[in-house]
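Hi W., the 2-acetamido-2-deoxy-beta-D-glucopyranose complex you wanted:
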Amino acid sequence: MKILLVIVTLCSVQIVTSTYCFWNTGCPYKYFSNKTPYNFVRGDIRDSLVKLPGCEPVSIWGLIRHGHKNPGTGYGMHMKEAVVIKDYIASSYERGNCSLCAQDVENLRKWQDDEHMFANPYQFTREGALESEGLARRLKQAFPKLLAKLDENDYQFRPANAPHSWVADSMKAFVGSLYDKPLTIQPAKTDHDNIYPYDTCKNYTDMEQNVKTNEESIKFQSSAEYLASKDRIQRRIGIDYALTDTNISALYDLCRYDTSGLTNQFSPWCALFTTEDLKALEYIYDLRHYYRSGYGASINEVFGQIALTDLLKSFQDSKVGNGKKITAYVTHATMMDMVWCALKLFKDDAPLTGAFRKPDRKWRSSKLASLSSNLIVVLNK
Ligand SMILES: *[C@@H]1O[C@H](CO)[C@@H](O)[C@H](O)[C@H]1NC(C)=O
Ligand SMILES: *[C@@H]1O[C@H](CO)[C@@H](O)[C@H](O)[C@H]1NC(C)=O
Ligand SMILES: *[C@@H]1O[C@H](CO)[C@@H](O)[C@H](O)[C@H]1NC(C)=O
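Structure:
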């Protein structure tokens, strides 16, 4: 009898622990398109091939996307509106209409905007600062001799323009961690900036605003895959009104803005989505990036070349003994995409379309346009 009891207990323990829940899943899906935390996808320059044995690094050139920031007013408003869904979920759970796990519901119910992201739209965050600082710290460790001493003529740092301070703040955090004395950061240019050339170019703004540019991502939102995912989310939550596409993106934004790559803490909002749902949502943004700043429009490659011209010039100057030890810029995701195009990186054989999500595509916004994504190039002697 005793033996039997023990067995019964063991079996039931096993049943309880094997229930799939978000809070205890061993490997949550961590690719959140352009809001992917840098730590989820980064490499480490200290271990990288860029350090060549027998060579002497003489100049570094870097183009870096800004780090984590709060959502802007528009997206922030939709997210704030969507927060009430957590109360609907709690009551739907009590009625037995919600299939989320108890702990996931509890975590959601307790969720608060601890980071004050709605109160401070566009604000650079602590997560963002730590991302930028980490990047600089590792660079310093990878090239200790080159970066040991930086005089006024040894460096150039400049952020791209932005309507708020998050890009400049990312640059400051990077520079602050690169060197123990204050260094000069050039002010952002408001026109003809080679690291933000599309900003004041009418061809680009026309293209970006053209309805055709978002056609494929909109098409995907009526695909069988996306509709099935939307239906799953709706049923899992079990609320009695139909979620709109805006509601789904707002919930997705809550999940991704509120997730920290540095502490590896996922937002309880992510529990509303399965891995398949997150893959479908990720693809909407892959398509947007592809057509707005990627291979979907030929002009994008030209903008990428403009930024890379600065790299060429910088290394040519170094060759004739007139160079900088380090040149670094902080810019926007759009610019990073364009540079990848100019370098023919992440290029698929066939264009991405809304009709079909190719699982092994090369163009993955989560990897090429993550927060703090960057291109670091080193000239060796
Ligand atoms: C859902 O979206 C609609 C507009 O698409 C909006 O009016 C409504 O407030 C949203 N609901 C929630 C709970 O976010
Ligand atoms: C800019 O737009 C004009 C008019 O649509 C077009 O003829 C031209 O090729 C575009 N330039 C580039 C670089 O795409
Ligand atoms: C909850 O589930 C019951 C039984 O399936 C159903 O009759 C009811 O309409 C559901 N309520 C909501 C709000 O979905």
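Residues 4-18 have pLDDT under 50 and may be disordered.

W.
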